[in-house]
Amino acid sequence: MDLVSQYGPALLRGFGITVICWILGTIFGMALGLVIALIQRYAPRPVRWLIQIYIEVIRGTPFLVQLFVLYYGGPLIGLRLDALPAGLLGLTIYGSPYFAEIFRSGFRAVAHGQIEAARAIGMTEPTIIRRILLPLGLVSALPALVNFSIILTKETVILSIITVPELMYQVSRMSAETFRYVEANLVLALFFWALVETISRLGRRLEARITQHLIERT
Amino acid sequence: MFSIPVFLESFQPLMWAAQYTLLISVLGILLGLVIGTLICAARLSGSRLLRGFGGLWVSFLRGVPLLVQLLVFYYALPVIGLDVAPTAAAVICVGVCASAYISEIWRGAIAALPRGQAEAARAIGMSPRDTWIRIILPQAFSMSLPALVNELILLVKASSLVSVVGILEITRASQAQAATTFRPLEVYIAAACIYLAINLCLAALGRYLEHRTAV
Amino acid sequence: MQASSVEISKVNKFYGPFHALKDVDLSIPPGKVTCLIGPSGSGKSTLLRCINFLEEYDSGEVRIDGKLMGYDAPGRKMSGKKLRQMRRGVGMVFQQFNLWPHMTALQNVAEGLIRVRGLPKSEAEARATDALRKVGLADKTGNHPARLSGGQQQRVAIARAIAMEPQLMLFDEPTSALDPELVGEVLNVMKTLASEGMTMVVVTHEMGFAAHVADQVAFMEKGELVAVDSPQGIFHAPKDERIWNFLRTYRERNAF
C-alpha cells in the first residue's frame, strides 16, 4: 500500500510520458516517412541516392546508438537537447525509414492500371497523388503501419537509458530504491504485454472497418 | 568540431568488442532457431495444450520490450539460485526472444505453401512424415532464409541493449571509450559505423540468398 | 495393365450447411474413360477428389474394385497406413500441376517410387526416365518445374502419376490452367493413356476431348448427377433440359 502512495504518481507520470512518446513518435515518424516515400517516388536520382543512404544508415544501426549520438554527441556540434525532446527526435528519425518503406510498398500495391485510368481522364499528378495514390496506398499500408507503431511502443523503453522519465525509467528508479527488481520488471513486462495485445486487437478492428468496402464479395 | 583522429582511434577498442556483438547475435539466432522450431511444431501440433502454450510464448515475447525481458531475466536468475555467466545469460535471453519471431517465420512460410503441394504427396500415398521432411520443410526453409538473415540483423542491433546489464560488446565499449576521451560524438559515430558495416554485409547475404532461392 | 473399376453409390458431402454432393451414384467401368462435365461449382471436382479420399465424403460409398475407400465401416475412418495403401493404386493429376518446385522433373517422378514404393534410387530413376519418355519429355529430366512450360509441367505431373503404375487415373481439370496452344500436348498424352486401357476419370471443360475420347460422360449440376450417357447421347441427344442449356452456353461462348 505504501508503495502505491509513494511511487504511484511517478509511475503514472511515467506512463503518461510513455504514451506521449509513442503517439508523437508515431505521428512524426509517419509524417517524415511519408515525405521520404514521396521523395523516393518523384525526386531526381541524386536526391534519391542521398535518401537511400539515410535509410540504410538508420536501419543498419541500433536505436540505442542513435540516441547516444544525438543526446551525448549532439552538444559537441551545438545540438543541445533535453532528454525528452532528444528522445522524441530520436524516435522520429528511427521510425522514419521503416514508415517510408511501408508507404512505398503501399504505393506499389496500388495497381498501375488505376493510376493510368486517372491519367487517362486527364487528372494532374498532384491530384492523382491526393485522390488515388494516397487513399488506396494508405489502406493497403494500414496493417503494416499498425504493426510498426506497436513496435515503436516497445522501443520507447529504450529512452529510459538516456534518462527520459518515462515508465521504464520510473520503474528502474523504484526498483533501485526498494530492491524489488524482479517484481517491478515482471509487472512492467505484464503491463507491456497487455498494452501491446490491446493495441494490436484495436488495430485489427480498425483494419476490418476501413477495408470492408474494398474486399470483393464472392 | 568533429575530430577525425579521435574518430579513427575509437575503432580499435570497438572492433575488438565487435566480436562479442557477433558472438551474442550468432549464438542467439542459433538458440532461437532450435527453440523457435520447437515452438512452431507445438503451434502446428494436434494438442490443444501445446498450441496454447506456443501461442502464449509467442505473444508474450513479442509483446514485451527486449530491454524489460533482459532485466527480468537478469535479476531473476540469482533469485531462483542460478549462477549463469552474464554473457551466457545475454545469449539465452536474446535467443529466447528471437525464438518467438523465428517460430512465426516458419509458420508463415509453411502457411504460404500452396495446399496442392502436400495434396500431391498424399495422392501418391506418401506418409505424413515423408511429406513433411521431403516436401514441406525443404521449401519452407529456403523460403525463410532471407527472413532469417533479416532476423539476424535485428539481433545484431538488439544486442546493443545487453550493454545495460554491463556486458561488453560494441555499445558498452563505446560508452567506456566516450567516458575516457570525452568525445562521445566521434566514438558513438564510430560505433554506428561498425554496426552498419556488419549489417550491410548481412543484408547483402540476405539478398544473395533471396535471388538464389527465387528459382 | 490391370484396370480398376469404381462404384460410387449414394455419396453425400457437406461443407457446413452447403450440400456439395447429393446422393451421387456413378459406376466407372474398368479400362474406360469417364468424363465429368458441368458448370463450375457443380461438384465435379469434389466428386473426383472423393474417389481418392482427398475429400472426405460424409455418407454413401466409394468402392474401388469392391474395396471401400476411406472407411473401414460406415462412420469409421480407415487408418492412414491403409489409406496410403489404397491411394497407391490411384494416380491423380491436378489443375495446378502441384509439381514440387525444389525438385527436378526426374526427382518429382522418382520421389514417390523411392519414398512410397521403396525402390532403390537407381531403379526409381530408371523408371522415372521411362515415364518421362512416355510423355515426351526424355530431354527435360534435369529441369526444375520453373524452367518448363505449363504443358510440360502438366506432362511431368502425369508422368509422376503413371510411374506409380496405378490401376486408375483421376484428372482434375488438367488443361484449365494452360494457355490454349499448350492444351493439345497434354490431351494427346491422355489419349495415349486411354488407348492403353487405363481406367480414367476426367473432370474437364474440353468438350471436344469428352466427345471423342470418353466412353461415357456424366453431367453434374448443383451437386447432383443429372445424367450418365454415351458422348453421343449427352452431346447430340441430351435428355435433360439442364444439359441442353449448359451446352448452349458453352457453344455461344466458344463461337466466333
UniProtKB/TrEMBL annotation, chain A:
GO MF annotation, one: transmembrane transporter activity
GO annotation, biological process: amino acid transport
Subcellular locations according to the entry: Cell inner membrane; Cell membrane
Coiled coil: none
Pfam family, one: BPD_transp_1
Topological relation to the membrane, as annotated: Multi-pass membrane protein
Transmembrane domains' residue ranges: 15-39, 51-71, 83-100, 132-152, 178-196
Keywords, in A-Z order: Amino-acid transport, Cell membrane, Membrane, Transmembrane, Transmembrane helix, Transport
Protein name: ABC transporter permease subunit
Residue ranges of every copy of the ABC transmembrane type-1 domain listed in the record: 11-200
Primary subcellular site in the record, as a coarse category: membrane
InterPro entries, per database record: AA_ABC_transptr_permease_3TM, ArtM/GltK/GlnP/TcyL/YhdX-like, MetI-like, MetI-like_sf
Listed GO CC annotations: ATP-binding cassette (ABC) transporter complex
Family: Belongs to the binding-protein-dependent transport system permease family. HisMQ subfamily.
Species name: Paracoccus limosus
Automatic annotation (TrEMBL), chain B:
Pfam families, sorted: BPD_transp_1
SUPFAM superfamilies: MetI-like
Domain of life, source organism: Bacteria
Any one annotated GO CC term: ATP-binding cassette (ABC) transporter complex
Assigned protein family: Belongs to the binding-protein-dependent transport system permease family. HisMQ subfamily.
Subcellular location: Cell inner membrane; Cell membrane
Major localization class: membrane
Database matches in Gene3D superfamilies: MetI-like
GO function terms (MF aspect): transmembrane transporter activity
Transmembrane segments: 20-42, 54-76, 88-106, 188-209
Any coiled-coil regions, as ranges: none
Function: Part of the binding-protein-dependent transport system for glutamine; probably responsible for the translocation of the substrate across the membrane.
Transmembrane helix keyword on record: yes
All copies of domain ABC transmembrane type-1, residue ranges: 18-206
Keywords: Amino-acid transport, Cell membrane, Membrane, Transmembrane, Transmembrane helix, Transport
GO process terms (BP): amino acid transport
Topology in the lipid bilayer: Multi-pass membrane protein
Keyword Isomerase: no
Protein name: ABC transporter permease subunit
Automatic annotation (TrEMBL), chain C:
Family annotation (Gene3D superfamilies): P-loop containing nucleotide triphosphate hydrolases
Localization annotation: Cell membrane
Pfam families recorded: ABC_tran (PF00005)
Topology versus the membrane: Peripheral membrane protein
One of the record's GO molecular function terms: ATP binding
Annotated keywords: Amino-acid transport, ATP-binding, Cell membrane, Membrane, Nucleotide-binding, Transport
Cellular component aspect of the GO annotation: plasma membrane
Entry keyword annotation includes Cell membrane: yes
Superkingdom of the organism of origin: Bacteria
Domain (ABC transporter): residue spans on this chain: 6-247
PANTHER family, alphabetized: AMINO ACID IMPORT ATP-BINDING PROTEIN, GLUTAMATE_ASPARTATE IMPORT ATP-BINDING PROTEIN GLTL
Family: Belongs to the ABC transporter superfamily.
Name this polypeptide is given: ATP-binding cassette domain-containing protein
Organism (species): Paracoccus limosus
